[in-house]
Write a structure and sequence with these properties.
Elements: E1 8-9, E2 14-19, E3 22-27, H1 29-35, E4 38-42, E5 49-50, E6 55-61, E7 65-69, E8 74-79, H2 81-85, H3 89-92, E9 100-104, H4 116-125
Antiparallel strand pairs: 1-2, 2-3, 3-9, 4-6, 5-8, 6-7, 8-9
């Protein structure tokens, strides 16, 4: 499984990329691999304010449906409608296929997430 440096990871297998006050959120390579071929993606409304642990969206595959959670408090600025039109983009490039771009409400919440080396260890225990 690919784990990229420079991202933050949640125990629910979401990744967070920080750029200034904005974050990009998606699901990890492990998550997409576990789900299999993704056939449907549901995203939140632009303007939604979500707290850490809230459902950000839904990803469905031929095997299962899975909620995607926001690992940090956010206000959704943009959604990636390309994923709605072609959900398989997540399978092909999970780290390039962000689900939302959002305003990060509390940067200190990033400290509760894992960095790449911690996430790799976490995956070994899964």
């Amino acid at each position: 499984m690919e784990v990229l440096e420079g991202l933050y990871y949640s125990k629910d297998h979401e990744w967070v990329k920080v750029e200034g006050d904005k974050v990009y959120i998606g699901i990890t390579d492990y998550a997409q691999h576990s789900l299999g071929n993704i056939v449907y993606v549901e995203l939140p409304e632009v303007g939604s304010e979500l707290s850490a642990g809230d459902v950000l969206g839904v990803v469905e595959s031929v095997k299962a449906a899975s909620d995607v959670y926001t690992p940090v408090d956010i206000k959704v600025l943009e959604v990636n409608n390309s994923l709605v039109e072609d959900p398989s983009l997540i399978n092909n490039d999970p780290y390039g296929s962000w689900m939302v771009i959002a305003e990060l409400k509390d940067k200190s919440q990033l400290d509760k997430l894992m960095k790449a080396d911690e996430y790799r260890k976490f995956l070994e225990e899964e």
